[in-house]
Amino acid sequence: MTFAGATAGRILTQLRHDHRTVALMVLLPSLLLVLLRYVFNDERAFSAAAPALLAVFPFAIMFIVTSITTLRERTTATLERLMTLPIGKFDLLLGYALAFGLVAVVQVLVAAAISLTWLGLEISGSVWLLLLIAVLDALLGTALGLLASAFARTEFQAVQFMPAVVMPQVLLCGLFAPREAMTPVLEWLSAVMPLSYAVDALTTVTRTAEVDGTLLRNLAIVAGCVVLALVLGAATLRRRTP
Known about the structure:
Elements: H1 2-16, H2 19-40, H3 43-75, H4 78-82, H5 89-116, H6 127-149, H7 155-172, H8 184-191, H9 194-207, H10 213-236
Helix pairs in contact: 1-5, 2-3, 2-5, 3-5, 3-6, 3-7, 3-9, 5-6, 5-10, 6-9, 6-10, 9-10
Membrane topology: Multi-pass membrane protein
Subcellular location: Cell membrane
Protein name: Transport permease protein
């Protein structure tokens, strides 16, 4: 855990000097939600769509930023130098996840605060539970980004993983059509994609204050996918890209 904390501290120090990346991660989801609010120009319509997008926007942004940043560390031989130290692969990826996870917390806090105040998002459940689910989803994007970076050799290839990993989940998570209304094949595919459970959990929190077994199951699935992606990322981590 000491090595993971040191890695997280190093990444956060680097991010502190990269103002554009920090602005992208922290402010872009909020700006997109503001744009969406005035596209609808109706608080009720916005409240119906915003919960899913509180999952989708942080997920997509953290995926692309994390995958590119990790790949850059590999291509510049930073990972190779780090792995000469007595540090496990999982500890190394956990450090990245902790650093980007802290950024994700700030990102979600800003987006949720703007949505709940200025944009008029109405929820029936706990605000803290809403924040927890949104943070878990941002962490999911981070973990999948770390995993995807292991299979990319260039930053351009890392960007190409976004339509392969992120877009199918966005299309099938229930954002555009109810999952149960999809064809059986697509409904089955949506059932194996973690973003679907994050969207379901956020939608539930906005509509009811009841915490039932389905909500807890959805949370457990998203959290389990975060851990699984980190474990798989550690198993496939290479010192540098050939």
